[in-house]
Every structure is written in structure tokens, then in C-alpha cells.
Amino acid sequence: MTPDVDLFVIGGGSGGVRAARIAAGHGARVAIAEERRWGGTCVIRGCVPKKLLVYASAAAAQLADARAMGWDVTVGAHDWAALVAAKDREIARLSEAYLGNLRRAGVVIHDGRARLVDATTVEVGGQRVTADHVLVATGGTPRRLAIPGGELAITSDEAFHLPALPPRICVVGGGYIGVEFAHIFAGLGARVTLVHRGERVLPGFDPDLRAAVEDGLGRAGVAVRAGDEPRAIERAGGACRVHLRDVTVDAELVLAAIGRTPNTAGLGLAELGVALDPRGAVLVDEWSRSSVPSVHAVGDVTGRVALTPIAIREGHAFADTVFGRRPVAVAHDLIPTAVFSQPPAAAVGLAEDAARARGLDVTVFATRFRPMRHALTGRDDRTLIKLVIETGSRRVLGLHMVGDDAPEIVQAAAIAITMGATKDDLDRTLAIHPTAAEELVLLR
Ligand code: NDP
Predict the structure, then answer these.
(1) How far, in Å, CA of 216 to CA of 206, rounded?
(2) CA-CA distance, 281 to 297, in Å (whole number)?
(3) Ligand 1 pocket check: which of 155, 156, 260 to mutate, most ligand atoms within 8 Å of Cβ?
């Protein structure tokens, strides 16, 4: 019997939408289901609204800087509701654009929660749809604190819809989300405490980058408590009391940013024999194939790398491989990434400690300098640029930066590094003066 469609995609986020559109472009008959809003985590409750809030939060320091440069600036109170409304308008526009793109590609849309009935049948909205291939692109969901009173803490999902900005906020977790939201809230005027259990924020990043980001948090007025974690949370008047090892932190809001869990519960995967890892992630090979031949998975649900551009690349590669007769495997080894702290951090390639742990012989070139504009503002911010070079081949193994425009600069430099640039290639590149990025080609 001919199946109803060639491909059924479960999940209308970055990875699923890209796979659906590319597969349809290759001539496949495609259906897609989404149970929440079209666009998924990145567009609805992640990267995009986060970056909009970062712009608003960073404006506070820019206004102060303008004053230091001679502008007559009077700053009134910040209107949180106006910011959230403006952010929501943009998110609604983007969500509509995602849906419109799917429709134009001829993809059949299902608004509702889908679940696998067998290896080639999906049930959605009381209807059963058969498909040659099923792509699971259901993303992840924030983990919650498993401590007494943990339910009093919100997650990033809710952080985008607060009715007002609370005066005191305790952020738990020193990863991407904890660092980004600590800055957002502090810039907008909240008193923020960031509690993280590691020695430094941003586990997995280069040690100097981590130290520089932690410096930046301190300069932004965030009270950082390292090497500690909450034991319990209780209500105390109108606020929450967070019990740490030896002290308590009172805050109107507690945000748990302690990682994300792959969204596989209730999809029918385990029942089908799809192999999952202990966290519930779909185990896939380099072609995004699960242990059941008709079922593939891309994006956060696979637990590989939880970043939007990776999900998009995996979705595209899947569609090219299965429907475009062009096998494409996604390399996960040289991934540029940014943390939108203030100033932001960005990196591509190996951290110094990771390179040494691999037994590589490395030479490090690094500089920390005061950005030129702060000669006028008086701010004591420092920019970090660090290169990790393989000593013998002179190849650039890693670039790590903290400072204004770091994500923009590292994205451009990542092209050269992906092409295999050496320190000599950087050295013979002419500088643009005066810029911060020129340090990349002037480091000696
Ligand atoms: P991360 O994995 O980045 O960080 C989690 C943090 O929480 C770590 O500091 C971790 O510490 C800590 N932690 C974990 N469990 C507990 C616990 N039970 N109690 C206290 N602390 C705990 O997760 P995030 O939630 O910040 O972000 C999820 C993912 O989303 C990121 O990893 C990233 O892939 C993606 N993301 C990307 C962004 C970007 O590209 N700019 C922005 C936001 C998210 P420890 O190291 O000790 O386990």
C-alpha cells in the first residue's frame, strides 16, 4: 500500500522545519506536526526572544556611556511590559513566517501532538497518517530542580512571559542560559544572584574565557556564588528563600537554568524499540538514523549538540540524504558558539585545556585590552582574544573571545579556521585599524 506521505516530521522547530522544506523541495510528500507554536524553542522561547531582551538590557549601559560621552541623557524607569509586548510582536511575526514557508513548500500542516503508533504510522489529532519515513525533531525541555521547593523556581520557558521584572532574582546554573539571563535581568535593573556549582561559569569553555565572563558578570553587578548549589527553596513572605550550603538568598524570582532534557516522553519511541540513551535522547548514527530504519531524529532530541545551527544542518543533511540522493553527514567537531553575556563571549574550536588533555602540543597567544571606546566612558571593561595554536603545524585549533561583537568576529574568523588556517595565515593578513578584531592578526 502506498503510504499517505513520504515523510512525517514530528516537531516544527528549527531542525524539523528545515528538513520538511528541503525534503518537499526534493519532491517528497511531507506532513509536519507541532503541538505548541511554530518555530520551536529557538524562535519562540530561546535564541530569538533572548537576543531581543539582550538588546534592551544592554541599552542601559549604552545610555550611561552616552552620558559619559557628553550627551544630555535622562533615563526614566524601564517599562518591562512594553518590552515584552514588542518582543512578542516579533516572535508572532516569525512564527507566522515559519508556517507560511512550510505552506509555500506544500507541506501538510498538523497543529497537535503527534505520537508514533508503529514504525511508519503517526497519530495526530485523532487521525492516523502513514509515512515511509518519520523524523523526530521534538527538541528538549528545561530541567527542573529536584530539591524540596524546586517547583517554586521557574525555567527559561516562563522567563519570557513574566508580568513584571522582579526586584531580586536568583539564577541557578552557570551555563549558557544562566549567564545570559543573569545579565539580561541585571541590565534591566534587577538585583541578581547567580549560583553555580562549578569553579567558574560556562563549563566546557576555555578557562580564560570563563574567567573573563565571570569578571563581566561582576562588573554588571551580578553577585556570583561559585561552588554552591541550592538545597531547598521555601516561601518567605512574598519572596522565595533559597537555601545554599551556608547562606540563604532571598529573591522574588528563582530561575533554574540547569540544562535541558530531550523531549521523547510519550512519543511511543521506546515501545517501538527505538534506542534511547539514559537521558531519553534518541540514539542516532552520523546519518541521523535511529535503531529503527524508518525513524530518524535531528536536533536537541538526539542529545548531540543543543544548538540551533546544528539542528538546521542535521535536518538539511537528513533531507538531502534520504530524498535528494545526496548523502551528507554532519561533522560535529568544529562548532562556533556564542554566549550573549554582556559583553558577549564566542569561541570556535578547542579550548586550551581540552587541547592539552588530548596530548596536543600547543602555543597560546592571548591579549586582554581595554576597548577604545572606554577611554571615553571610563568603564574598566576588558576584551579577551585568545588563540590556541598547534605548535608543529601552526594550525589554529581554537579561538576564544570575550568583548563587544565577539560573536560577529568569531563567526567570520570561523570560516578561515574551518578552512584550516594557520598562525602564518593570520600573520600575513592585514589589519583594519583601529578595531578590536585586528588583534587577531597582530598577536605575537
Ligand atoms: P548548560 O548545560 O549550558 O548549563 C547547565 C548549568 O547548570 C551548568 O552550570 C551545570 O553545572 C548546572 N547544573 C546542572 N544540574 C544542576 C543541578 N541539579 N543543580 C545545580 N546546577 C546544576 O544548560 P543551560 O540550561 O544553560 O542551556 C541548555 C542548552 O541550551 C545549552 O547547553 C546550549 O546547548 C543551549 N543554549 C544555547 C545558547 C546559545 O547558543 N547562545 C543559549 C541558551 C541555551 P555542571 O557543569 O556542574 O553540571
Answers:
(1) 15
(2) 9
(3) 260
Q: What is the DSSP letter of 422?
A: B
Residue range 4-39, pLDDT digits in tens: 999 999 999 999 999 999 999 999 999 999 999 999
Let me know: does 78 contact 185? Beta carbons within 8 Å: no
Q: Domains in the chain, start-ordered, CATH in brackets?
A: 5-141+261-322 (3.50.50.60), 150-258 (3.50.50.60), 343-442 (3.30.390.30)
Residues with CB under 6 A from ligand 1: 172-178, 180, 196-198, 203, 229, 257-260, 306-307, 337-340
- Ligand 1: nearest atom to the Cα of 142: 25
Q: How distant is the alpha carbon of residue 119 from its chain centre?
A: 31
* 250 vs 73: CA distance, rounded Å: 33
Nearest CA to ligand 1 atom 45: 198
Q: Ligand 1 pocket check: which of 156, 176, 249 to mutate, most ligand atoms within 8 Å of Cβ?
A: 176
Q: Which residues are catalytic?
A: 433
pLDDT tens digits along 125-142 = 999 999 999 999 999 999
Taking the centre of ligand 1 as the mean of its atom positions, its distance from the CA of residue 257, in whole angstroms, is: 6
Rounded to whole angstroms, the Cα distance separating 241 from 224 reads: 17
Q: Of 62, 104, 249, 77, which is closest to residue 172 (Cα–Cα)?
A: 249
